[in-house]
């Protein structure tokens, strides 16, 4: 057996989940709502030198990689109906040309040691951008302190992707302090919705009535393709990346309506379509024409071609709560899939090896 793999555990055999999920990543995801509440409380008190108002902001960039970038993607989706300025998430070594003095650059690295993020931080400094950092330590924390810049300090000891409930509130709070959004209602609803999903899909809930376990069960043995729609674009991206890192499976993400202009064309003609299991993240408050497109896509392309179709409906009044509801369900499903496949969801050995190799030169 390759390192990190074990015999899979049945999804109702929860007393034995620890045989595979050795560091109890599932427990961390089950506590998403509590962590989000704690993260939100902490964010509102943190970084006092980053005060409400201040310098005019004409655009926002979240500069971060992987698990430290997804918070920006979710916030950009959830608040795009409210944000009066453009917001971009950049995962690279440098910032785009529009980054200048009036740009708020939120530099996000859970570990504080990610080289691309550190490089974007230095780029933001050179350009004179308004900078705020989010980190649990490392070089980023040191550089922020050295430059006298505000920092949202996060608790340590969590996998970056599992630290989402701590990484997201500082992004929201930064936008609020720049007077771009008023997030109280959305954050409170998101905490409540996350708690409901985690409760309904907790380990002790049997597979027959546990949506996250049912999703994991339906995806085992196939390649997940997760479709978001509208504000659920980043939620689909989060599903894909969680499937990559927790059960360590190759997965794809796509979205409606964009997929109607390319992806739809392949399902009936590519003989490999049956290898893919489709997850449709549905937004009950999405555009009605998008809902119609999704129904037609099932009829014209997916049914009879894909290896399975499973639908997940987001819940909540605010866009942020709907995004979070989809994210929490996907996070749980990804850990359940890991347990079923016998793959310890916590270690990300190849990512760590790559970082170690890069650090040598
Ligand atoms: O999930 C992960 O471990 C990665 O995607 C990391 O988040 C990514 O490599 C960036 O590291 P950090 O979040 O510490 O900046």
Mind sketching the topology for me?
Elements: H1 25-30, H2 32-45, E1 59-64, H3 70-78, E2 87-90, E3 103-109, H4 115-126, E4 130-135, H5 138-146, E5 151-153, H6 164-177, H7 184-200, H8 211-219, E6 223-229, H9 233-245, E7 252-256, E8 276-282, H10 288-302, E9 308-313, H11 319-341, H12 349-360
Parallel strand pairs: 1-2, 1-3, 3-4, 4-5, 6-7, 6-8, 8-9
5-phosphoarabinonic acid is lined by residues 65-68, 109-111, 114, 117, 159-161, 245, 348, 351.
Which terms would index this structure?
9 strands; 12 helices; 2 domains; 4-stranded parallel β-sheet; 5-stranded parallel β-sheet; Rossmann fold; alpha/beta; binds 5-phosphoarabinonic acid; about 350 residues; single chain
Globular, elongated, flat, extended or rod-shaped: what is the shape? globular
User: What is the CATH class of the largest domain?
Assistant: Alpha Beta
From the 3D structure, determine the CATH topology of the largest domain: Rossmann fold
CATH superfamily of the largest domain: Glucose-6-phosphate isomerase like protein, domain 1
Query: Which strand order does the major sheet show?
Result: 2-1-3-4-5
Average pLDDT confidence is: 96
Give the number of domains.
2
Number of strands: 9
Number of helices: 12
Head-to-tail CA distance between termini: 32 Å
Instruction: Return residue spans where pLDDT drops below 50 for at least 5 consecutive residues.
Output: none
State the secondary-structure class: alpha/beta
Order of helices and strands: HHEHEEHEHEHHHEHEEHEHH
Second rung of CATH, namely the architecture of the largest domain: 3-Layer(aba) Sandwich
Estimate percent helicity. 40-55%
């Amino acid at each position: 057996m390759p390192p990190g793999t074990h015999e899979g555990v049945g999804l109702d055999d929860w007393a034995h989940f620890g045989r595979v999920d050795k560091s109890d990543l599932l427990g961390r995801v089950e506590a998403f709502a509590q962590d989000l509440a704690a993260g939100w409380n902490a964010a509102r008190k943190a970084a006092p030198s980053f005060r409400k108002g201040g310098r005019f902001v004409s655009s926002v960039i979240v500069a971060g990689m992987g698990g430290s970038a997804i918070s920006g993607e979710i916030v950009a989706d959830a608040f795009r109906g409210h944000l009066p300025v453009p917001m971009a998430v950049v995962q690279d070594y440098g910032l785009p040309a529009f980054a200048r003095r009036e740009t708020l650059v939120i530099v996000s690295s859970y570990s504080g040691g990610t080289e691309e993020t550190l490089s974007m931080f230095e780029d933001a400094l050179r350009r004179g951008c308004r900078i705020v950092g989010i980190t649990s330590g490392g070089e980023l924390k040191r550089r922020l302190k050295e430059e006298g810049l505000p920092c949202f300090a996060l608790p340590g000891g969590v996998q970056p992707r599992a630290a989402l409930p701590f990484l997201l509130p500082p992004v929201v709070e930064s936008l609020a302090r720049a007077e771009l959004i008023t997030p109280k209602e959305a954050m409170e609803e998101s905490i409540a919705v996350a708690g409901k999903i985690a409760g309904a899909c907790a380990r002790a809930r049997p597979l027959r009535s546990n949506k996250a376990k049912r999703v994991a069960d339906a995806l085992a043995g196939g390649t997940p393709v997760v479709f978001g729609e509208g504000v659920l674009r980043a939620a689909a991206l989060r599903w894909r990346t969680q499937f990559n890192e927790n059960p360590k499976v190759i997965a794809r993400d796509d979205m409606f309506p964009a997929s109607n202009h390319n992806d739809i064309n392949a399902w009936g003609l590519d003989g490999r379509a049956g290898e893919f299991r489709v997850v449709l993240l549905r937004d009950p408050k999405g555009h009605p024409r998008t809902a119609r497109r999704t129904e037609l896509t099932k009829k014209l392309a997916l049914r009879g071609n894909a290896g399975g179709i499973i639908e997940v409906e987001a819940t909540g009044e605010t866009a942020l709560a709907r995004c979070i509801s989809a994210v929490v369900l996907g996070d749980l499903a990804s850990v359940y899939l890991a347990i079923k496949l016998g793959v310890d969801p916590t270690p990300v050995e190849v990512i760590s090896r790559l970082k170690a190799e890069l650090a040598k030169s």
